[in-house]
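Now read this:
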Amino acid sequence: MKKKITVLGAGLVGKAMAIDLAARHDVTSVDLRAEALKDLEARSVHTVQADFTDFSSISKLIAVSDLVIGAVPGFLGFNTVKSVIAAGKNMVDISFFPEDAFLLDSAAKAAGVTVIPDCGVAPGMGNIILGYHNKRMKINSYECLVGGLPVKREWPFEYKAVFSPIDVIEEYVRPARFVKNGAVVIREALSDAELVHFDEVGTLESWNSDGLRSLIKTMHHIPDMIEKTLRYPGCVEYLRVLRESGFFSYEPVDIQGVKIRPIDVTARLVFPKWKLKPGEEEFTVMRIRISGTEEGKERTYEYSLFDKTDDTGTLSMARTTGYTATAVAERVLSGGYSRKGISPPEFVGENEDDFSFVVNYLKERGVQYRKTFR
């Protein structure tokens, strides 16, 4: 039976999710930018042009929805989720807002709704995998290395953003949290750079980023947990130079009597260079290692993902992020997953049926995680 779904945000990932869900449901895509909504009607997606900063209008937009997908920039995410909860709607969200989602847990439970934040690739699928194994073994360590990169390395940045570029910059300035020997460690972003080899792409550079998010609270019994972002080698150094020189600062500076935020100037200069050109391909690479004791034996599970832009031109990061969210959305819509309140993806992974559904859903769309253990 078709359900009514509203997708808030029609960026590269939001658009991919809307098209995927429209094959089975009645989908409406909402965005402020007419250009972002272009061509969606031809893909059986209804479109509405609206301003997300007007939170009072969200309840009207989603009034008849059975479920809402959130794909807005991070700085809008928390209040958008808050508005959806107030409207009494279930939600799957990939805005990766900086606030603690559990601050909305009581409101979501009071409204009797299910809200799954951070439901992308990492955080997202990594959490689902960890949640699955957490119910089946005593885990000692969790490591997730993940990155999305252009196939063609183009100077000076050798990087292209397939989601909100301002959220990319946030990764470079937000302090990174990880868990070592049972204690939460806070380091600056871009710290502890290491070179890591991947068969499909060669050597990449990993560095600390704040990707554990809800796992720090929900998996606090695991003594060692870390998430690191992957980029082409050399990336960390120039990003640190930009950051330490103040180019990522939100504090206004006076330029001949005019107050200007450095981040706004940086965004204006670098965002065009981070935009993928028509036909340009990119890939997603991820490696997860989970070690611990299972059935009295020491075991390490490894999940590997290497995924490229597909034959239809749908970007890998849009597919690996978006299809994780749409898979979980299907479980919520069917009633297969109905835990109320703020329910991060690791909770979704606990049940065998939910876990298998998401893995198979992704596999059917060409996103395959290779699993090995020793």
Notes: The chain has two domains: 4-120+316-373, 125-308. The first strand starts at residue 4 and ends at 8. The domain at 125-308 is CATH 3.30.360.10 (Dihydrodipicolinate Reductase; domain 2).
